[in-house]
């Protein structure tokens, strides 16, 4: 667990190592000045056209308050709408519901935030004997460095829905609630092995499907999709289920020895009941449902519905329910229907109804009709003569916005992307023809994004030749053994610039000024760290999303959010 701590200042090292650090910094800055002088003589070509630069300038300036750039849901790119429409739709769909959100004035919001922070401080003091030193430091620093910060509400636009809908998100990053929720998420994730229906991703599901025995002729697929799962989970019921889940694990001897059930449930209660946020000039507190945007939301919902699956759905339909797996709010089942050992129509109707029959909340599911083939996550799953086959599924509205060649990314990025995508396609497609089809579509879509045949074709050939030598169930073996001592490595973080200092130069200057000193054993050199490896890790520069999108809502004076509420 790691958190940036701006108040932390390490003590000085030895004089020799401090001098070497200063020399290294001076050499890096000298190289930067040399490159800048070179750019003055030969300016680099911008990766945005004049028209694109003009559009960005206008969206950040003239139209800053009247147009809003939003992310589309399901990774379907970006959308631009009027701020007025986005605000009205957000209030109408979500914030006007007094059963879910309570509107606060600024003073009350600040007072409630301070009240939460006082309760969190008390919690941190009491949880100390039950957590590691690293966890306790994480919680203390998280509270200390984030006091007074309030979350922000924003929405994603569901362009794949008609009529248009918005998905609510609360940006908790930088708040004390986020720090506590991160710890809760870290704690609950240790219990994932005890959630029998959970799947990590589509690849985990695909592997499970390949390991199934031959299915009977009356086996069918049924897909289920929860409607607004997070906001529809009743908080009190969710806390009760969490406690029962933890107590059951304890009774079975599966709960980690340092888990204090009362404190874990208390942390969950604090996270779920104190979701305070701002939207424009208004403030709200969520009254019902999972705290949106909080790091622990996923594990909270996974554990919550698992209790219903384990104690209702599986025992009641177990002999006719051949498979039940779930990825958060999307479930896939294989059931026997008809015949002497399958569900009749009444049992099928009851099975669908039982998805909703859990708790006092408003959580409901859309359970689809039985079929022999259905899309699920990024797979199309098909039952054919008792065997399951899979192929890659891509949404009809997918824009395939792969990174173009003029984007400020390291050149090796395209090779990694092609290798990764082809490997995924090869594993997902049971039939070789499907693999070839999706691979060629990927190739042509990259060309449509500006990549030339000369650059990508050799990479495709190399990747394909390597991938087809692996079995579809191949998992890259770990390069470290359980008892291995982890390598001592230094990571040099640097913001990538295609016209800036090259990785090789950064490493060369490091070796010149620091390499021999830091790689020497501690007992031989004062300040030596006996490092085994140096990594130059690039971080990305600001992208278009950073420039054009903000969780903070911008409005023209007189058209603030409060005016839509009549105050």
- Helix tally equals 18
Number of strands: 16
The shape, in one word, is: globular
Radius of gyration, CA atoms, in whole angstroms: 27 Å
Low-pLDDT residue intervals, each spanning 5 or more residues: none
Biggest sheet details:
5 strands, mixed
> Roughly what is the average pLDDT, rounded to an integer?
88
Helix/strand-derived category reads: alpha+beta
- Beta-strand level of the residues, as a percent range? 15-25%
Span from first to last CA?
43 Å
Helical residue percent band: 40-55%
The largest beta-sheet arranges its strands as 3-8-7-4-5
What is the topological layout?
Elements: H1 15-41, H2 50-60, E1 67-71, E2 78-82, H3 83-95, E3 101-104, H4 106-127, H5 133-146, E4 151-158, E5 165-171, H6 176-189, H7 202-210, E6 219-227, H8 229-232, H9 235-252, H10 261-273, E7 276-279, E8 282-286, H11 297-317, E9 321-327, E10 330-336, H12 345-354, E11 364-367, E12 373-376, E13 379-384, E14 387-392, H13 413-428, H14 432-448, H15 453-467, E15 489-495, H16 503-518, E16 533-539, H17 544-548, H18 561-564
Parallel strand pairs: 4-7, 15-16
Antiparallel strand pairs: 1-2, 3-8, 4-5, 6-10, 6-11, 7-8, 9-10, 12-13, 13-14
Helix pairs in contact: 1-16, 4-5, 4-10, 5-6, 6-10, 6-11, 9-10, 9-11, 13-14, 13-15
């Amino acid at each position: 667990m790691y958190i940036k701590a701006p108040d932390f200042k390490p003590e000085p090292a030895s004089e020799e190592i401090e001098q070497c650090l200063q020399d290294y910094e001076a050499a890096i800055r000298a190289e930067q000045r040399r490159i800048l002088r070179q750019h003055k003589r030969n300016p680099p070509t911008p990766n945005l056209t004049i028209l694109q630069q003009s559009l960005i300038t206008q969206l950040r300036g003239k139209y800053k308050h009247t147009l809003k750039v939003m992310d589309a849901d399901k990774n379907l790119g970006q959308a631009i709408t009027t701020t007025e429409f986005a605000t009205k739709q957000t209030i109408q769909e979500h914030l006007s519901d007094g059963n879910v959100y309570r509107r606060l004035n600024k003073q009350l919001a600040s007072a409630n935030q301070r009240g939460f922070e006082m309760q969190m401080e008390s919690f941190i003091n009491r949880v100390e004997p039950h957590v590691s030193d690293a966890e306790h430091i994480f919680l203390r620093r998280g509270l200390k460095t984030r006091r007074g910060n309030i979350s922000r509400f924003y929405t994603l636009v569901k362009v794949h829905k008609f009529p248009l809908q918005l998905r609510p998100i609360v940006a908790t990053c930088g708040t004390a609630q986020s720090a506590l929720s991160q710890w809760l998420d870290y704690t609950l994730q240790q219990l994932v092995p005890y959630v029998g229906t959970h799947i990590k991703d589509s690849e985990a599901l695909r592997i499970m499907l390949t390991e199934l025995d031959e299915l009977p002729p009356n086996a069918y697929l049924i897909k289920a999709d929860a409607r607004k799962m997070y906001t529809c989970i009743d908080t009190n019921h969710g806390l009760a289920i969490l406690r029962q889940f933890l107590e059951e694990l304890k009774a079975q001897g599966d709960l980690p020895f340092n888990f204090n059930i009362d404190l874990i449930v208390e942390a969950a209660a604090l996270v779920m009941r104190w979701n305070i946020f701002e939207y424009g000039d208004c403030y709200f507190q969520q009254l019902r449902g999972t705290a949106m945007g909080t790091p622990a939301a996923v594990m909270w919902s996974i554990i919550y519905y698992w209790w219903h699956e384990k104690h209702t759905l599986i025992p009641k339909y177990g002999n006719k329910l051949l498979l039940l797996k779930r990825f958060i709010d999307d479930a896939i089942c294989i059931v026997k229907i008809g015949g002497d050992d399958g569900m009749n129509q009444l049992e099928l109707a009851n099975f669908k109804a039982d998805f909703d029959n859990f708790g006092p909340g408003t959580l409901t599911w859309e359970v689809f009709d039985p079929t022999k083939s259905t899309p699920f996550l990024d797979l199309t799953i098909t039952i054919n003569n008792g065997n399951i086959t899979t192929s890659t599924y891509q949404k009809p509205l997918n824009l395939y916005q792969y990174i173009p060649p003029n984007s400020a990314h390291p050149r090796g990025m395209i090779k990694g992307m092609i290798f990764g995508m082809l490997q995924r396609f090869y594993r997902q497609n049971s039939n070789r023809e499907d693999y070839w089809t999706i691979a060629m579509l990927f190739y042509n879509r990259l060309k449509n994004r500006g990549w030339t045949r000369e650059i990508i074709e050799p990479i495709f050939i190399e990747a394909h030749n390597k991938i087809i030598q692996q079995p579809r169930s191949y998992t890259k073996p770990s390069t470290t053994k359980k008892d291995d001592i982890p390598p001592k490595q230094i990571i040099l973080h640097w913001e990538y610039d295609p016209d800036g200092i090259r990785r090789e130069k950064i490493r060369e200057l490091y070796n010149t000024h620091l390499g021999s000193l830091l790689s020497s054993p501690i007992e031989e050199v004062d300040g030596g760290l006996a490092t085994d490896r140096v990594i130059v890790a690039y971080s990305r520069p600001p992208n278009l999303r950073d420039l054009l999108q903000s969780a903070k809502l911008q409005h023209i004076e007189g058209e603030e959010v409060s005016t839509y509420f009549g105050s």
